[in-house]
Design goal:
The chain is α+β, with helices and mostly antiparallel strands and 622 residues long. The chain contains 20 helices and 20 strands. The chain binds flavin-adenine dinucleotide. It comes from Muriicola marianensis.
C-alpha cells in the first residue's frame, strides 16, 4: 500500500502538517501525509480568519519562503483589512476573514497538486524507533509505515478532552476523535509532557440575527492580500458586525459558574491568556459591564456565523440564555455550542532550532503540540520542520532563522530557549527588531533564503528582485530629482506643512511626516516616473518606507549586528556546565537542560544572568 520507505512522514493535516508536507515534498522528498480525517485537511478549528497583529507578518513570511498559507488565505478570503495602518509600518498587520470550507478545500487542492505527496487517512498510534532514531510510524490498524524522518503535528488531539458545562468527553475537536498512544510512548522514551486548554465560541444561524442592531465592520475599501505571488485581490467583501455584552448578560453567565468546568476545578490546565473565555473575562475584569462581540460570517455561501469574543465552556443552556440578551441576538438559533478542550503538549525546550527533538533523531514536532496557539504559529513551525526534515536526510546544512530575520525566528527561539507554560501566541512586542521585521519586506528578507534551499520558486525570486530593484531606483529618483517650489508649496499647504523657499531634492520634503506618497504623486515628474517605469502599489509602499524610515531601519540593523557578535560565539555541543562552579546553580541546571547553541541564546534563557554569561565568555575565551 505504501512506499517501502518514505523520506518524510507528516502526522496530522492541520496548519502545521499541511505546510510541513508541502515544504518537504516541494524540496524533493517523497512524503506521506497521514491524518485522521482527509476531509479536514487545513481545517480552521476556531475563528475563520488568518493573520492579525504579528500573525499577519508570519503569514507573509511563510509565503515569502515558498509556503502555501498566504495563497490559501487569499483564495478563500471574504474580507481583508490592514490593521494598525495609523501606526508606523512596523505595526501594519494584514488580516483576512475567510470562508472556512473554501480554506480547507484550497489546502486540499494545493496539496493534491503537489508532486511527491501521498495521502493516507488513519490514526497514528505510535512511532517506530530504533535506538535513538525514528524509523517510521504505526497506525491504529497495526500498519507499520517506514520513513527516514517523521514530523508530528497532532494539534489539540493528543488525549483531547472536550468540556461543555458538567459534561466531558474525549475528542480532538467537536465531532472528531481524540488521538491516543503517542503521548504515552513519548513519555516512555523520556519526553516531558504537559496539558493545556483552549476554547471556542458557539456558532449560530445568521438568519436568526438582527444585524440592524449591530455596527457593521466592513473590510478595507482598497483591500490588499497576503501572497507576493499573483493571487486574487478581493473585488467584493462580506461585512462583519459588532455588538456588545451587557451587565444582564454577565449576570446570566455568572448563574452558570457553579457548573463551569473552569471554576469547579474540572479544567486544571492553562488556557490562552490573550484569548480568554467570556466567563474568564467577566471574572477577571469584574469592573467592566460590557465586552465586544464580533459577528463573523463563516463563508460566502453559508448562514453560519462565528461569535468572536464569546468563547465559553459554560453549560449550553446558559450559553443560549445569555446570548439571547445580546443586542441583535434576541432570536438566536444555535448551530453548535461553544466548548473548551484540554490536550497534551510537549514543552518545546526539548527541541533544537530545526524543531528536531533532542532525544530522538529525525523526529520533529510542529504546531500546537509545542505549546503554541494559532494557525499562523502552527503553519510556520510546520514549514521549518518540513524544510529541515528534508535537508537533514539529504545531508544538507540546517535551515534556521534568526531573531532579526523573521518573526518565525523569534517564535522558534522563544519556544526552544524559554519554553512555555501557557499557550504561546506571537505579538509584535516579542520581537526586539520589529522595525526590520515588517509585513511589507518579508519577501526581501526571506525569498532569497527560500530560493537558496530550493523551496521558493523562480517566479517568486524574480518578482522579489524586480520589486527590490524598482524600489531602490525610485528612492534614488527622489534623492536626485529636484522639485519646483511652486508646485511643492501647493502640496505643503494642503498638508499644513511649512512652505519651501527654493528648489531642492524631493527626498527632503518627502521625508516630512505629513507628506505621503499620494501627495508626491501630484507632482508631474513623479507621476510620469511611475507611469513610465510601471511602478505598482507594492513598490510605491516600499519606496515610501525607505524614504521615511531609513534612519530607524539603519539604527536597528546596527543594533542587530552588534548583538550578532554574541550569536557568533558558539558553545560546543557537549559542553559540561556542571564543571563551571562559578555559574549559579540555576544557570547550570537550565544550561544543561536547554543546551544553547550560542552565547546569545544562553543569555535569553530565564534564570541565566549577565554574570553567568560573563563566566561563560571568560571560559570560552580561554
Ligand atoms: C476548540 C479550539 C479552540 C481554539 N481556539 C483558538 C483561539 O482562540 N485562538 C487561536 O489562536 N487558536 C485557537 N485554537 C487553536 C488553533 O486551532 C490551533 O492553534 C491550530 O489549528 C494548530 O494547528 P496544528 O496544525 O498544530 O493542529 P490542528 O489544526 O489541531 O491539526 C491537527 C491535525 O492532526 C491530526 N491528527 C492528530 N493526531 C493524529 C494522529 N495520531 N494520527 C493522525 N492524525 C492526527 C488531526 O486530525 C488534525 O488534522 C483553537 C483550537 C480548538 C480546537
Amino acid at each position: 500500500m505504501f512506499e517501502k520507505e518514505y523520506d518524510v512522514i507528516v502526522v496530522g493535516g492541520g496548519h502545521a502538517g499541511a505546510e510541513a508536507v508541502a515544504a518537504a515534498a516541494n524540496m524533493g522528498s517523497k512524503s506521506l501525509l497521514i491524518t485522521m480525517n482527509l476531509q479536514t485537511i487545513g481545517q480552521m478549528s476556531c475563528n475563520p480568519a488568518m493573520g492579525g497583529i504579528a500573525k499577519g507578518q508570519i503569514v507573509r513570511e511563510i509565503d515569502a519562503l515558498g509556503g502555501y498559507s498566504g495563497i490559501v488565505s487569499d483564495r478563500s478570503a471574504i474580507q481583508f483589512k490592514m490593521l494598525n495602518k495609523s501606526k508606523g509600518p512596523a505595526m501594519w498587520s494584514p488580516r483576512s476573514q475567510n470562508d472556512r470550507m473554501r480554506f480547507a478545500e484550497e489546502w486540499r487542492l494545493l496539496l493534491e497538486g503537489t508532486p511527491n505527496v501521498d495521502f493516507y487517512q488513519e490514526m497514528v498510534t505510535g512511532l517506530l524507533v530504533k535506538g535513538d532514531e525514528v524509523v517510521g510510524v504505526r497506525t491504529s490498524l497495526g500498519l507499520d509505515i517506514r520513513a527516514k524522518s517523521v514530523v508530528l503535528t497532532n494539534g489539540t488531539f493528543l488525549n483531547g478532552l472536550i468540556h461543555i458545562g458538567e459534561k466531558q468527553f474525549g475528542g480532538g475537536r467537536a465531532g472528531e476523535k481524540a488521538a491516543t498512544g503517542i503521548t504515552e510512548q513519548l513519555v516512555d522514551l523520556g519526553f516531558d509532557s504537559g496539558r493545556m486548554k483552549t476554547g471556542t465560541p458557539p456558532r449560530v444561524d445568521g438568519r436568526s440575527l438582527d444585524y440592524s442592531k449591530m455596527i457593521p465592520q466592513p473590510g478595507d475599501p482598497d483591500p490588499e492580500k497576503f501572497s507576493y505571488l499573483d493571487t486574487p485581490v478581493l473585488k467584493q467583501q462580506r461585512d462583519c458586525h459588532m455588538t456588545h455584552t451587557s451587565k444582564v448578560v454577565h449576570d446570566i453567565l455568572r448563574e452558570g459558574f457553579d457548573r463551569s468546568p473552569m471554576f469547579n476545578g474540572r479544567i486544571k490546565s492553562i488556557g490562552p491568556r490573550y484569548c480568554p473565555s467570556i466567563e474568564d473575562k467577566i471574572n477577571r475584569f469584574s469592573e467592566k459591564d460590557s465586552h465586544q462581540i464580533f459577528v463573523e460570517p463563516e463563508g460566502w455561501n453559508t448562514v453560519e456565523v462565528y461569535v468572536n469574543g464569546f468563547s465559553t465552556s459554560l453549560p449550553e443552556d446558559v450559553q443560549y440564555k445569555a446570548l439571547k440578551i445580546v443586542k441583535g441576538f434576541e432570536n438566536v438559533k444555535f448551530f453548535r455550542p461553544g466548548y473548551a478542550i484540554e490536550y497534551d503538549y510537549f514543552p518545546p525546550t526539548q527541541l533544537r532550532h530545526t524543531l528536531e527533538t533532542k532525544i530522538i533523531k529525525n523526529l520533529y514536532f510542529a504546531g500546537q503540540i509545542n505549546g503554541t496557539t494559532g494557525y499562523e504559529e502552527a503553519a510556520s513551525q510546520g514549514l521549518i520542520a518540513g524544510i529541515n526534515a528534508h535537508l537533514k536526510i539529504n545531508g544538507q546544512e540546517p535551515f534556521t532563522l534568526k531573531r532579526d530575520e523573521a518573526y518565525i525566528g523569534v517564535l522558534i527561539d522563544d519556544l526552544i530557549t524559554k519554553g512555555t507554560e501557557e499557550p504561546y501566541r506571537m505579538f509584535t512586542s516579542r520581537a526586539e527588531y520589529r522595525t526590520l521585521l515588517r509585513q511589507d519586506n518579508a519577501d526581501l528578507r526571506l525569498t532569497p533564503k527560500g530560493y537558496a534551499i530550493g523551496l521558493a520558486s523562480e517566479e517568486r525570486m524574480r518578482k522579489m528582485e524586480e520589486k527590490e530593484r524598482k524600489s531602490k531606483d525610485f528612492v534614488k529618483f527622489f534623492k536626485l530629482t529636484s522639485y519646483n517650489p511652486e508646485d511643492m508649496n501647493q502640496i505643503l499647504e494642503e498638508v499644513d506643512s511649512a512652505p519651501v523657499k527654493q528648489a531642492d531634492k524631493m527626498f527632503k520634503v518627502f521625508s516630512r511626516p505629513k507628506v505621503r506618497m499620494d501627495h508626491m504623486l501630484q507632482l508631474k515628474e513623479v507621476s510620469e516616473y511611475v507611469k513610465s517605469n510601471e511602478i505598482n502599489r507594492e513598490v510605491m509602499e516600499q519606496a515610501e518606507i525607505q524614504v521615511k524610515y531609513s534612519g530607524y531601519i539603519e539604527k536597528e540593523k546596527s543594533n542587530a549586528d552588534k548583538l550578532q557578535r554574541l550569536e557568533n560565539i558558539r558553545i560546543p555541543d557537549n559542553f559540561d556546565y556542571s564543571k563551571l562552579k562559578s555559574l549559579s546553580y540555576e544557570a547550570r541546571e537550565k544550561l544543561n537542560s536547554i543546551r544553547p547553541v550560542t552565547i546569545s541564546q544562553a543569555s535569553r534563557i530565564s534564570g541565566v544572568s549577565p554574570s553567568d554569561i560573563s563566566v561563560l565568555l571568560v571560559f570560552l575565551g580561554r
